[in-house]
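Figure caption, in words: inputs first, then the predicted bound structure.
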Amino acid sequence: MPNDLVSKIFYRFLTPYEYVKSFKAKYLEQAHMKKGTLRICEKGHKYYKSTDCPACPVCEKEKKPKEGFLSTLGAPARRALENQKILTEKELSKYSKYEILKLHGIGPSSIPGLEKALAVKGLSFRK
Ligand SMILES: [Zn+2]
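Bound structure (zinc ion present):
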C-alpha cells in the first residue's frame, strides 16, 4: 500500500469534525424518532415527517427563490419557466403571453401575476 494512502485512511479515522458529525447525526436521529418517520429524498436529504407529505424541506428551501418574480409563482409554473431559462422579467418579456401559456405548468391563472411582475419593471409581454 502506498504511504500516502495509508496516511489518508488513518487521517480519516481521526478527523474530529467527522467524528462529531456522526455523533450528532446519531443523536438527532434518536431525538427525531418520536416526531415521525425518517425519510430520505431523491437527493439524499434526511428528514422527518409524521404526515404522508412527500416534500423534502431541504429541497423545498433550495428550490424556492427568495426574491424576484419566480418566488411569487406556484411550483409548476416556476419549473416551467426555469426549464425555459426564463429567470428574469427581462427574459420573460421576450415571450408573448400565448407562448408562455403554451408551456406545461402555466395556467391562465399564472398570467396576471406575471403581467404584474413585468409591469413593476416597466416591461410587458411581447406583442
Ligand atoms: Zn431533499
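The pocket of zinc ion is lined by residues 41, 43, 45, 56, 58-59 (CB under 6 Å).
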